[in-house]
Amino acid sequence: MARAATTSDVFNAIAEPQRREILVLLRAGERPVTELAQALGMTQPGASKHLRVLRKVGLVRDRKAGKQRLYGLDARQLRAVHEWTGGFEGFWNESFDRLDAYVQGLKQARQKE
Amino acid sequence: MARAATTSDVFNAIAEPQRREILVLLRAGERPVTELAQALGMTQPGASKHLRVLRKVGLVRDRKAGKQRLYGLDARQLRAVHEWTGGFEGFWNESFDRLDAYVQGLKQARQKE
DNA sequence: GCATCATATGCCGATATAGGCATATGTCAA
DNA sequence: TTGACATATGCCTATATCGGCATATGATGC
Fold first, then answer.
1. Tens digit of pLDDT for each residue in A13-47?
2. Fold (CATH) for A10-106
3. Most CB contacts within 10 A, which of A105, A111, B26, B32?
4. Which residues, if any, are the signal sequence (chains A, B) (predicted)?
């Protein structure tokens, strides 16, 4: 079944590195498509498609400004991701300590595949 | 070019809902593959494949325990995601306020497509 | 209307994915 | 060794994805 549609899931939407880049760029303020495309070194249709995904998920909103269409950040959905990962906060320290020993013993045995 | 390999990017690895579920389950402690498969209502090979992805990214580690192989959480990588989304923390409140007005005006116009 | 600029869509191809199923590998115990 | 159990791999199919390219839609100004 391939994978859940990128347009329905924020996690999936930000799985694409270029889309993450777009979000970062938009932190500096609203931008038209062309400018984003240029900044990321991709084609205009390419940028439009990524923005479409981001828009469907709600990470981005657009606004007409003359001939242009300005895209702006809507980070509310990112909060969900932040909170989900936050649910593991106790673990990214704890697991480190508690499991350190056996990680050592594991090091050479696996590592591959 | 399809998409970046799920095995090289944490964002991609957690883009899969069932893999996220696995991580959540592992918060309760180490678990063998079969138990995870059962808990998630998927086949054993299915669970093994997801675990393989999670292992390659480093979100999970395994340990032999008799016949079984226990999988345990290694949440360190999730910290990166947490911090990346945290970089938008100022925006998921601010954007709400600042853009509220035009969101209203937008509501009926788009919404679809 | 028409020309121009800005953006979106459609179609294509290459690739990756997830899931199902059979089967291989691995590990223990007798 | 053999058998039983646990897990991993391989092969297959259906589907999604991203990127490129051409082109359609949209908006502006003349």
1. 999 999 999 999 999 999 999 999 999 999 999 99
2. Arc Repressor Mutant, subunit A (1.10.10)
3. B26
4. none
